[in-house]
Design goal:
There is one protein chain. Helix content is about 50%, strand content about 15%. It has about 400 residues and is an alpha+beta fold. Strands 1, 2, 3, 4, 5, 6 and 7 form a seven-stranded mixed sheet that branches. A two-stranded antiparallel sheet has the order 8-9. A hairpin with a 2-residue loop joins strand 2 and strand 3. The longest helix is centred in the last third of the chain and has 36 residues. The N and C termini lie far apart (about 55 Å). The N terminus is likely disordered.
Length: about 400
C-alpha cells in the first residue's frame, strides 16, 4: 500500500491512475496509534471492506434488502466477535469507523451485534446462555435483535417502558410491543426488555423468534439505513423458560452501562461516514470537468473538501480520546453523549457539503453520496437524539435537568 507521507511529498507529474496524496485520508496518523498486529489487521479489513462491501452494498440499500452473503464474508475477518476477541478499544472503534466508511447500515448491525447482543450475553448472561449463543454470534451464523424501544416510548424508555413479564411457574410470560428493532425480522432471538409485574424492575430476556406469540413486521420506506431490517415486534403471551432471563439483567442499571458504550460507538460511525463523504467528494472533484478543468481546481470546492476532512478528523480525534478513557474504565454517560451529539452534528454537516459538491449527482445513490445523505440523518437521531444527548451533557455541567 502506498505510504501516505511519501505520497504527499512526491513531486512531478503523476500517472493517470496514481492514488491522490493521503489516499486513506489519515492526516493525523491515527492508525499509527495501534500496535503492529492490530495495525496489520486493520489494513487487511479496510482493504476487504473497500473492495468487497462498499460498492456491493449500494443495490441492497436501494432495494432495502439484507446482504447475507456480505455478512458471511465479514465473519471471516472476525467482525462478529470484536467484543470478545481481546481487541483494544481503539481497534474496535476504528473497525466500526471503517465499516461505516463502506456502508453505514452494516456498521449499525456490526456495532449493535457486538456492543449490545454479544456484549449483553457475555457480561450479563449465565454460563449456559454463553455456551449456547456466543459461538454462533461470534461467527455471524446466529443473529440477535436488541428489543428495547417501544412504539410510544423512545427517549423516556427507562421510565415509560410498558412491555410486561410475569412469572408463571417455570416460565415467564411476556406481553407488549417494540419498534425500530434492528434485525428484528431476520434474528434468531431477541433480547427483550420487559417490566416484571411483581417488582416493577426492567429485566432482560432471551426470546427465540420462533416462539408462539412473537411476530415481527419490517419497517419499510426509510430514507436511511435501508439495509438494516428494522421491525415492529409484538409479543402476545410469549412464553419462555425461566432460564431465558439474563441473570445479570434483573435491573435496568446494568443494561444502561452497555447502552452508554453503545452510544459512544455511534461516534465511530459518524467519523466513518464523514471519511466516506470525503472519499467520494475528492474522487468526484478530481474526475469531474467543468469549464475545462477539474472541480478540484476551484477554490470553493477545495474549501468544502477541507471542511469535510476537518470535521471528520475533529470527530475522529474526539473518539480517540474517548477510547483512551474507555480503555481505562473511566467512561461516563456525559462523555458518551457529548461524543455522539458532536460527531453526528458534524457528520450531518459534512455529508450535506458532500452532497452539494456533487450537484445534481449528489442526490442519487449512483454516486453514493445520496446514500450517505440519508444514512447521516439516522445517525443524528438514533441511540438518543441529538437534542437528548445535548441535554445529558448540559445537565452534567450545570447540575440542572431540563428534561421535564
Amino acid at each position: 500500500m502506498l505510504d501516505e507521507k511519501a505520497a504527499s511529498t512526491t513531486s512531478g507529474a503523476a500517472p493517470a491512475n496514481a492514488l491522490p496524496p493521503y489516499p486513506e485520508a489519515d492526516l493525523m496518523h491515527v492508525v499509527d496509534l495501534l500496535p503492529d498486529e492490530e495495525r496489520a489487521r486493520y489494513r487487511e479489513v479496510r482493504e476487504f471492506l473497500q473492495a468487497s462491501v462498499r460498492a456491493a452494498s449500494i443495490e441492497y440499500w436501494n432495494r432495502e434488502e439484507f446482504p447475507f452473503g456480505l455478512l458471511a464474508d465479514m465473519a471471516k475477518f472476525g467482525l462478529g466477535g470484536l467484543q470478545t476477541d481481546g481487541s483494544s478499544t481503539l481497534f474496535k472503534g476504528l473497525m466500526y469507523t471503517e465499516i461505516a466508511r463502506a456502508d453505514v447500515s452494516l456498521s449499525a448491525l456490526v456495532g449493535i451485534h457486538n456492543e449490545l447482543i454479544v456484549g449483553m450475553i457475555h457480561e450479563l448472561g449465565s454460563p449456559e446462555q454463553k455456551q449456547r449463543w456466543l459461538p454462533g454470534l461470534e461467527a455471524f451464523s446466529v443473529l440477535g435483535a436488541f428489543a428495547l424501544t417501544e412504539p410510544d416510548h423512545g427517549s423516556d424508555i427507562a421510565g415509560g417502558l410498558s412491555t410486561t413479564a410475569r412469572r408463571d411457574g417455570g416460565e415467564w410470560v411476556i406481553n407488549g410491543a417494540k419498534r425500530w428493532i434492528g434485525a428484528g425480522t431476520i434474528a434468531d432471538f431477541a433480547l427483550v426488555w420487559a417490566r416484571d409485574e411483581a417488582d416493577g424492575h426492567i429485566k432482560g430476556f432471551i426470546v427465540e423468534t420462533d416462539r408462539a406469540g412473537y411476530a415481527a413486521t419490517k419497517i419499510s420506506n426509510k430514507i436511511g439505513l435501508r439495509i438494516m431490517q428494522n421491525a415492529d415486534i409484538t409479543l402476545n403471551e410469549v412464553r419462555v423458560p425461566a432460564s431465558n432471563l439474563l441473570p445479570g439483567a434483573t435491573e435496568f442499571s446494568r443494561a444502561n452501562e452497555l447502552l452508554r458504550d453503545s452510544r459512544a460507538w455511534v461516534g465511530w460511525q459518524a467519523s466513518g461516514i464523514q471519511l466516506a463523504a470525503f472519499d467520494i467528494a475528492r474522487s468526484y472533484a478530481l474526475e469531474r470537468l467543468q469549464f475545462g478543468k477539474e472541480l478540484a481546481r476551484f477554490q470553493l470546492v477545495q474549501q468544502q473538501l477541507a471542511d469535510i476532512l476537518g470535521n471528520a478528523h475533529a470527530s475522529l480525534s474526539l473518539m480517540v480520546e474517548l477510547a483512551r478513557i474507555q480503555q481505562a474504565g473511566k467512561l461516563e454517560m456525559v462523555q458518551a453523549a457529548m461524543a455522539k451529539a458532536t460527531t453526528t452534528r458534524l457528520a450531518r454537516s459534512s455529508v450535506a457539503m458532500g452532497r452539494s459538491l456533487l450537484g445534481g449527482n449528489g442526490i442519487t445513490t449512483d454516486y453514493e453520496m445520496g446514500k450517505l445523505f440519508g444514512d447521516a440523518e439516522i445517525l443524528y437521531t438514533y441511540e438518543g437524539s441529538y437534542e437528548i444527548n445535548s441535554l445529558i451533557v448540559a445537565r452534567a455541567v450545570t447540575g440542572k435537568s431540563a428534561f421535564v
